[in-house]
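Predict the holo structure. Ligand: biotin.
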Amino acid sequence: MSLPIFNFTKIESTNDFARSLITEHKIFKGIVIADEQTKGRGRYGNKWNSPKGNLYFTVFFPILRSNLKKIQFLVQLQIRNILKNYNIKNVSLKWPNDLYINNKKVCGILQESIVLGKLYLIIGIGINVKSSPKIKKYPTTYLNKETKKKIILTELVDKLKKAFVSKIIDKKYSFKKIVKDWNKYAFNRNKFINFKLNNKIYKGIFRGINNNGALILEHNNQKDYFTHGSLV
Ligand code: BTN
């Protein structure tokens, strides 16, 4: 599959631009990359700090609703694989969309969708390469701090692009296998966690995800399943 690439030195948000390509220009698949963003967005309306030197990458394409859930876990696994090939160890996958190195956030993923006749998925990926912001709620890190290997942004972009084309978009995948792999690398699995949903905190032991991708929280020998929310 060939994906048109839209490259910017500066843009408000690569996700917003992808959305406008779909809704206004009827371009239904592609990749948007920027050196820096002036209105980078994270989940829950948070700001995503986007100075030059880090990676801002959005890929968008049509998708079947039945594949929506699987993709988020598959994307995390593929990014983990890319980081592993830079000799970076201890990369874990945090529910539902982050990647951590040694318990510090290095990558955030913002998945959005649009229905315009068909369903389109917009996956925005931010990877801290040269620097990471100081955030009150969680520790952060960046790739250049975690590996001695030189990371060239254009190469990292290329690896991501290849992963989407050859391993993710329009590929057949077994959810069972994705779940098994994801659980292997899950952040804080089998540990006591606080889980937040709609401003309510649930406490319990995080048992990974089930075969439908729902988070399993064990409390008093009883299991609760969550499809939304975040680990806090
Ligand atoms: C999060 O952890 O809250 C998700 C962060 C996602 C940031 C990326 S950077 C590229 C794309 N454009 C945006 O405005 N956001 C995503």
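Residues 13-15, 37, 40-43, 46, 48, 56, 58, 98, 108-110, 124-126 surround biotin (CB under 6 Å). The CA atoms of residues 85 and 168 lie 18 Å apart.
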